[in-house]
Amino acid sequence: MLGPGEPLPGEVGTAPGGSLSPLVTVPDEGVEPDVTIALDRRADWIARAVLVTERGAAAERFRHFAVRVSRLMQQQGMRAIAVTSALRAEGKTTVSCNLALSLAGVMTGRRIALVDLDLRRPRVARGLGIEPRIGIEAALHGEATLAEVRHTTQLPGLDVFPVLDPHLRAHELLSAPSLGQ
Description:
- By secondary structure, the protein is mainly α.
- The chain is built from seven helices and three strands.
- Strands 1-3-2 form a three-stranded mixed sheet, with helices on one face.
- The protein is globular.
- The N and C termini lie close together (6 Å).
């Protein structure tokens, strides 16, 4: 699975040892965004606080958080992070969306992949105010490639891999060998 800063397969290579620092950058030139993250204060605007309230306290805190996370990821050689909790409505979507938006600003020259793997109650697309044309579940089913599922945004380096249709039997998709790929 792709993590923050990790390119799509075939786009760039990794340095020996898999460290993030020497990754070849992926230019955004010529990449037309196919979705636009809404900047208005619709129902789920809080998941876009970094963009909607650009100078607000929440946005500033997420930027500081992103700087700390990016440093830790580089120091530890981490390529992905997960945001999870045991219960609904604890802020997973808000944290993951705002962290991805902030990381896209902090880790310039690298691709940030925001992957919604809450297949039962997906909220990333709605939280960002985008309407996906295809979802990550298509790649997990083997019906589409990861590149086809990728939704590029107007923010340089930020790609979103949303869920299109909720799945009650999410455990089957998440335990499939295709998830590791």
